[in-house]
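[agent] plan:
  1. take the single chain provided in the ticket
  2. run structure prediction with default settings
  3. attach structure tokens to the ticket
  4. add a short note for the reviewer (M.T.)
[agent] executing step 1
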Amino acid sequence: MWAIFISELYYVFVNLTIGANKFFKVIPMSIQWFPGHMHKAQKEIAESIPQIDVIIEVLDARIPFSSENPMISQLKGDKPVVKVLNKRDLADPELTQLWIEHLEKEQSVKAIAITTSNPQEVQQIMETVRSLAPNREAIGKNIRTMIMGIPNVGKSTIINSLAGRTIAVTGNQPAVTRRQQRINLQNGVVLSDTPGILWPKVENPHSGFRLAATGAVKDTAMEYDEVAFYTVEYLAKQYPDLLKARYQIEELPDNDIELMEAIGRKRGALRSGGHVDLHKCSEILLHELRSGTLGKVTLELPEMITQELVEVEIEATRKAEEKAKKKEERRKRYLRNKR
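[agent] step 2 finished; step 3 output follows
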């Protein structure tokens, strides 16, 4: 009932405020989600890393930056890292290669792209791990690895494929794994599994939208409409042909509200009176993006991230100055009242 009310209110609002040739600008979404088990996982990871030889970080190939946990960079020190771009079958192949080259600019980082539907590709992870820790095998010691990644990135499926048996629980909902475990792969590699962890706050609002769009954030912690409008605006600019083909639209409308309405009409997401049910339409768009039904899509490029990080820094500086100003005003008021 509440979702229907929000959808109706949103529909009225956007139609009252949007101009014929303007895009509706959604409010930046800030994700703050740090359950107790994630805090515990972070502590356990920090304690275990000194005994680890190689770190395996699983990323979503559609959002390689946004699915990269900055906490891992802080915790890993100088350990070599294998960046695994999973779900490559859902991502734009040209941009995936671009991201691999970009990630490997960082020292001691090797990046590979895989899909868990191909076991041979998953085994490439072990080959890469061995190339980064040749000294351990040379002395007959197991290579000690730790696999990490944000929720719902496919980490558990990768573990089961590497082990050749079901060890980790898999699921389409984020945060399935809750505790750390050690797994002897019986091939000279010991793997430490960790819970999928998000960092305390996603500072880049664009990353927040992308994480939500790809399913890294539970649907109950996001507004479908906001995320869908952000996503469809990006798709209209970067992948217009995919939208045209999937939703049988000859020419895309000039703004996102009209585009979402066109998609809704094509998919029968209508309310009484012939109005498009924007919430239902948003669900359709995001579900088809996540499943790959829409096509192979990558939601960010390295150059985009560079600009966004500049914007984040500017905003952080503004907030810090504003906070300092308020603190000084409170101090002055306190001194006046004390006289």
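[agent] step 4 note for reviewer: Confidence is low (pLDDT under 50) at residues 1-28, 172-178.
[agent] ticket updated
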